[in-house]
Amino acid sequence: MNRVMFEPTEKQKTKWSFVEREMPSDEEFKIMWAKKHGGKINGWGMGKRDWAKTNLAAASDYQIGMWQGRVDAANHIPYSEERKTASYNYGYHIGYTEYPEFRRGIDKKTAEDFDKKYMGVI
């Protein structure tokens, strides 16, 4: 079976022009956290986790990975970890595992367009 590859549109490429930021050190993050929370550092670890997730999801690789995961799930291709980047793998995981919710959340026209482009369905 040939794998169908996701190809972003020009509009998507423009919209997804994010660059991953470098992760601050623990000490830098604790200082940033304390400034936002009245000098307290409790909870900074969860805050750093959320920062990392947001940073990964802001990258264009995340979006491409998410859409490739959806395309693979739609075509019943087994889940694969491609290891292009952490952002890509995070997006791929979300796209692949949440594909049923994606299908329920889109309108009929969008579903038909997706099927036609990525599944060869008319």
Please describe what this structure looks like.
The chain is mainly α. It has two domains: 24-57, no CATH class; 59-122, no CATH class. It has helices at residues 10-15, 26-36, 44-58, 60-74, 86-97, 99-105, 108-119. It is elongated. The model has no long low-confidence stretch (mean pLDDT 88).
Topology:
Layout lengths: L9 H6 L10 H11 L7 H15 L1 H15 L11 H12 L1 H7 L2 H12 L3
Helix pairs in contact: 3-5, 4-5
Task: Quickly list its features.
single chain, 122 residues, mainly alpha, 7 helices, 0% strand
Report the principal-axis shape.
elongated
SSE string, helices as H and strands as E? HHHHHHH
Distance between the termini: 19 Å
Q: Considering DSSP H and I runs of 4 or more, what fraction of the residues is helical?
A: 55-70%
At a glance:
The protein has about 120 residues and is mostly helical.
